[in-house]
Amino acid sequence: MTPSPDAPTYPLVAATATSVEAMDGLLVGCRACPRLVAWREAAAVAPRASFRGETYWARPVAGFGDPDARVLVVGLAPAAHGGNRTGRMFTGDRSGDFLIASLHRTGFASQPTSERPDDGLTLTDLRLTAPVHCAPPDNAPTPTERRTCGPWFARELELVAPRVAVVLGGFAWQALLSTLAEQGWLVPRPRPRFAHGAELTLHGPDDRRLTVLGCFHVSQQNTFTRRLTPEMLDAVLLRARALADAPPSGVRRTDDAP
Ligand code: SF4
């Protein structure tokens, strides 16, 4: 029997989804974290002055982009007046502006802006997601909330099966490595620490390989202070593309000598 969307076990239904689209259809009904449900809905009834009159999405925000992407960008969680307002990941706030502009410069995004779900933006060979799908107070989900949301993230990783993960910040770094370890990937112990520019190649079930790239989060805290510059983000994304394009080691290219 399918658990109620209010039950802490509801996210376990993610395992039954056989496509990213099917999983997202289940995800948007989730109400498993009472504190986050209250927060996402409170933002909708007290919008910022500049968004007054808008109808907020105020539900879980699904990943966005190519479901068969070779590159997965992993953020933290939707912003209360960004993704939680527009219903699309990294859409309608400064973090999204910074990230999408870089995705456009590096050839992953069809346009440099991400304002509304109907703005025509498409992503090619790249998908955006987060280990927590509802906006948290102070951008800080609790460990319990991360664990509760974990089945959605785990299933998305299985279904998308990226070759490269660009991880924005330490929270997402820990969430990704924990999830991969639970899925049987060989994750070193002690766990490698997050750093901007960190690069880690992991081996998983069925001979799969995933390269994980660390990058400072695109939050205003980092971009306004130039801790993360456009050039730094572009460099990480170009590295992700190069890794995605590289033939898997041990695989002979058709033009290799016999
Ligand atoms: Fe459901 Fe995840 Fe939102 Fe919690 S954070 S209510 S598990 S979608």
| Overall radius of gyration | 18 Å
- Write down the overall geometry: globular
Strand order of the largest sheet: 1-3-2-4-6-5
The CATH topology: Uracil-DNA Glycosylase, subunit E
Instruction: Indicate how many domains the architecture comprises.
Output: 1
Reported for the largest beta sheet, the result is: 6 strands, mixed
**What is the CATH top level name?**
Alpha Beta
What proportion of the residues form beta strands (DSSP E)?
5-15%
Class from helix and strand fractions: alpha/beta
Count the beta strands.
6
Global mean pLDDT: 94
Full CATH superfamily name: Uracil-DNA glycosylase-like domain
Number of helices: 8
Terminal CA distance: 55 Å
The succession of helices and strands, N to C, reads HHEEHHEHEHEEHH
Low-pLDDT runs of 5+ residues are: 250-258
Helix content: 25-40%
**What CATH architecture do you see?**
3-Layer(aba) Sandwich
Report the bound ligands by name, code or SMILES: iron/sulfur cluster
Question: Brief overview, please?
Answer:
Helix content is 34%, strand content 10%.
Textual characterization of the structure:
With 258 residues, this protein is an alpha/beta fold. It has one domain: Uracil-DNA Glycosylase, subunit E, CATH 3.40.470. Helices cover 34% and strands 10% of the residues. It contains 8 helices and 6 strands, in the order ααββααβαβαββαα. The chain has helices at 20-27, 34-45, 83-86, 94-105, 143-160, 170-182, 220-223, 230-245, and strands at residues 64-65, 71-74, 126-129, 164-168, 199-203, 209-215. Strands 1-3-2-4-6-5 form a 6-stranded mixed sheet, sandwiched between helices. α4 (94-105) packs across α8 (230-245). The radius of gyration is 18 Å and the shape is globular. The N and C termini lie far apart (55 Å). Bound molecules: iron/sulfur cluster. Residues 11, 27, 30-33, 36-37, 60, 132-134, 145, 148-149, 152 line the site of iron/sulfur cluster.
